[in-house]
């Protein structure tokens, strides 16, 4: 399980209703389906940890180790 918490940089508030996807470096894993953030700014994925990218609304906002809970700012 991987959770991505999205926070707005301009006010520090959770980003609700933002489209999030994970893209893993392994060619066999590819990119997940889009998940929309909830009231707390969190998007939950049933995915194993690994190296890759986090996309918010189609833009890369994070590159690196994706595991547990990752906080990103937009």
Would you mind describing this structure in some detail?
There is one protein chain. The protein is mostly beta strands. 0% of the residues lie in helices and 53% in strands. It is built from no helices and 7 strands. The protein has strands at 2-7, 19-24, 35-36, 42-45, 50-56, 59-66, 68-73. The chain has a 4-stranded antiparallel β-sheet, with no helix packed on it. A hairpin with a 2-residue loop joins strand 5 and strand 6 (59-66). The protein is globular. It starts with a strand and ends with a strand. 20% of the residues are buried.
Essential attributes:
74 residues; 3-stranded mixed β-sheet; 7 strands
Could you give the order of strands across the largest sheet?
3-2-5-6
Structural class: mainly beta
Report the portion of residues in β strands: over 45%
- SSE pattern, N- to C-terminal: EEEEEEE
Number of strands: 7
Radius of gyration using CA atoms only: 11 Å
Describe the global form. Answer: globular
| pLDDT averaged over residues | 96
Q: How many helical elements?
A: 0
Low-pLDDT windows of residues: none
Considering DSSP H and I runs of 4 or more, what fraction of the residues is helical?
A: under 10%
Largest sheet: 4 strands, antiparallel
User: Gap between N and C termini, in Å?
Assistant: 22 Å
